[in-house]
Amino acid sequence: MPSHNLARIKIDDLEIIGYSVAGEETVVAMPQLDVCFDIGKAPDQVIPINNILLTHGHMDHAAGIAYYLSHRNFCGQSPGTILAPENLIEPIKDIIEAWSRLDGNRIPANLVGVKPGDEYQIKPNLFALVFPTKHSRGSVGYSVIEKRKKIKHEFAKLTGPQIVELKKQGVQIDNPFEIPIVTYLGDTQYVDFSQLDYITKSKILIAECTFYLDEHTQRAEAGRHMHINEFAELIEKLQNEHIIITHTTQRTPLRQILSTIKKTLSAEKYNKAVVLMAERKEHF
Ligand SMILES: [Zn+2]
Ligand SMILES: [Zn+2]
Prior knowledge:
Layout: E1 7-11, E2 14-21, E3 25-30, E4 35-37, E5 51-53, H1 59-62, H2 65-74, E6 81-85, H3 89-103, E7 110-114, E8 119-123, E9 126-132, E10 140-151, H4 160-168, E11 174-184, H5 197-200, E12 204-208, H6 217-223, H7 228-236, E13 242-246, H8 254-264, H9 267-270, E14 273-275
Parallel strand pairs: 4-5, 5-6, 6-7, 11-12, 12-13, 13-14
Antiparallel strand pairs: 1-2, 2-3, 3-4, 8-9, 9-10, 10-11
The protein binds zinc ion (2 copies).
The site of one zinc ion has 4 residues, from loops.
């Protein structure tokens, strides 16, 4: 019996499962990529995922760290890997240590401190790129990029043995290229993310848009979150095929959030956007 009802969105062969309400819980998993952005309260469905990409230390995003690690150990799985801003590694170690003492069992963990500009290998062809966000000290977002190679045009008609021969001679027969699959912004105030090409061109953008009403403009600024007007300005600069909106406030009814999104975004962007929690399926 899963511990949570999670929303589920399918885009081609990729699934996005998660839960995201501001101040309550944010956890967004992509099982086929073996990554989970933030851990929320560690719902059972994300425990088998090997890589947790933590954006910042707020409780609604990070509360489940110790349970995730401990439950994997309990189930006989390898220690989970947690990527987190490097300034959070010490406090995360403290929490794991405190829970180990409380529980009476050592909790194995693979903790990786990251900073903007870092690249972390998830699978042979899959990498997480780290970029800065503006929310709390050291907060970051992640893009997941697939790296492939394409044979150069002039060698396309060669036979297998000819290619092997060229490789032996040290000839570079292919060109590397990168496909940005998904970008997760985490919590952030408005930043012109279009300056980063891999964000602009990510097939999927998962972005926070917390506030919707005019009277919540100050609240967005104070909490370093995005208001719908800023969000609309941002996505106009980007080229993502799919936009998933997370971290919606509980202060505004979902119905009103959806109608505000419709009247604020351009038709082109509106057609590409969904609110994660509006896609929520009961008993998933
Ligand atoms: Zn949050
Ligand atoms: Zn936060």
